[in-house]
Amino acid sequence: MSRSSQSKISSLNIHGIDACTLERDTIKEVFATAIPQPGEEIRSLIKRVRGLLGDTNAEVVRMHVFGGVDHFDEFADATMAELGDISWPLTFVEGDSCTQTSLAGIQLHAVSDALVDTIRLGGAPVGRVFADSHARYCYLGDLRASDTNRSRAEQGRESFLLLENGLEAAGMSMDELVRTWLFIDDILDWYDDFNKMRDVFFNERGMFDRFLPASTGIGGANPYGAAVALCAVALQPLDDSAVVQEVLSPMQCPAHDYGSSFSRAAGIDTPDYRCVLVSGTASIAPEGETVHVGDTQAQVDLTMRVVREILKSRGLDFKDTTRANAYFKHQNDASGFGDHCEKYGLPPTRVVVSEDAVCRDDLLFEIELDAFSEVR
């Protein structure tokens, strides 16, 4: 696999926002994490996001926002005022800040020098599609049932049907699905039922005949009262130089061994870059049981070691992280997370830290991240 002479990854700080750029022959991607400063109002944060987009001449592909749902209206008003009509998938997740701010943070993916198409379902923008020389990329978000009076399992299935419809609108299929995020309200109350529903849907689509997408399933309500809000990434190769593959965890068994239908990570290789999309990872032993019950810091440390080994298996490290989410069951436990970031070399300014329920009652922490490198 030859290296593109124009492939370049850079780290930037623009308007106080940590951003990474991935530049190659035809386009530039921007991965940004906007964390509120102490006492900062939501509109001020959005103004800084506007400044970043202006300085990079980038168009939003997707946006994930974590904060109290009671702040959603204020966030939506500020976003419309500063950024105009929202033409990208915006997913707002109940994730209380661990630093007493209105929002825990915003994760932004944008692109410049590329033709970006918008996917709409029912008139709402749910996805964006762009391409480089080797692949087409589709990002979908805020896929949720419109009728919140239906059962939670029915709502979950509708989210997956919307995912399928969004991919079809992009000229793609479920076979090209690389990663999902599943923000599940009251996750501890019905996660087993959710997994059964997902298994049925995946089985109907023949998903078990290929590698399963990487995924994060985390507790988190949304402003609309839907049982599930789903986000996804899909990649359609334009030639055989773009390769997507399952990445195993050297320290854990496949998640499907204990009933969760996702891969520990997904890897993407092109002539321009290599990346790994690490699924939601927690303190789980190789056999699947929870480790360090009741000890948050021990759970964090084990989880970081597990993720480090996944990254190493792909020739990457925590320093290559472009964005991450750290979920704590109890926000007070997040105070020591900076020490773990320093220990493992994870840039803390690229992590949104929030309080959210993890998929087991005895799991106190979970982290998921993306990491990129130039082809070496």
* Gyration radius over CA: 19 Å
Largest sheet: 7 strands, mixed
Please list the strands of the largest sheet in the order they lie side by side. 6-18-17-19-16-15-14
* Annotated CATH homologous superfamily of the largest domain: RutC-like
Beta-strand segment tally: 19
Query: Unreliable stretches, pLDDT < 50, 5 or more residues?
Result: 1-5
Element order: H for helix, E for strand: EEEHEHEEEEEEHEHEEEEEHEHEE
Distance between the termini: 10 Å
The total tally of domains equals: 3
The CATH first-level class of the largest domain comes to Alpha Beta
Structural class: alpha+beta
Query: What is the CATH fold-level name of the largest domain?
Result: 60s Ribosomal Protein L30, Chain: A
Looking at the structure, what is the overall shape? globular
Short description:
Helix content is 24%, strand content 36%. The protein has 376 residues and is of the alpha+beta class. α1 runs parallel beside α2 (72-83) and α3 packs across α4.
What does this structure look like?
The chain has 376 residues and is of the alpha+beta class. The chain folds into three domains: 114 residues, 60s Ribosomal Protein L30, Chain: A; 124 residues, RutC-like (60s Ribosomal Protein L30, Chain: A, 2-Layer Sandwich); 135 residues, 2-Layer Sandwich (60s Ribosomal Protein L30, Chain: A). It is 24% helix and 36% strand. It is built from six helices and 19 strands. The strands form three sheets. It has a seven-stranded mixed sheet, with helices on one face. Strands 1-2-3-7-4-5 form a six-stranded mixed sheet. A hairpin with a 2-residue loop joins strand 8 and strand 9. It is globular, with a radius of gyration of 19 Å. The termini are close together.
